[in-house]
Amino acid sequence: MHVHKNANLKYRQELGGTGGDQNVELFVRCCEKCSSYHRSRPPKQGLLQPMIVADRVSGWSIDLSGAYPTSNNNKYILSAICPFTKFAVTEAIPDKTAATVAKVIVNKIILVHGLSQKR
Known about the structure:
With 119 residues, the protein is α+β, with helices and mostly antiparallel strands. Among the domains are: 7-36, no CATH class; 61-113. Helix content is 34%, strand content 21%. It contains four helices and three strands. The protein has helices spanning 7-15, 21-30, 32-36, 98-113, and strands at residues 61-71, 74-81, 88-93. The protein has a three-stranded antiparallel sheet, covered by helices on one side. The longest helix has 16 residues, at 98-113. The radius of gyration is 27 Å and the shape is elongated. It starts with 6 loop residues before the first helix and ends in a 6-residue tail after the last helix.
């Protein structure tokens, strides 16, 4: 949107107004330059796809986030959510190497919650 650098001053000069915030905002919205400016259309987004979940623990949605400031030698957070039960597991980890992530998945998810019998 085109913005008047001195909207208050321009409003006072052109309309003799006192420069209240609402009046300036209305003036800028009614400005010919502002109203003729159009951005291109935003990119089309696809439709959301439903997750078909057959039973409990049939799959986990896993994400890594970070790096955060170090706390107890941990910089990253691994989060996992079971889409069927909406149960969440989070674990602070020191690095995001495959070995560290695999150890957390095995010890905190698979050994605690098990695997689905369905294949």
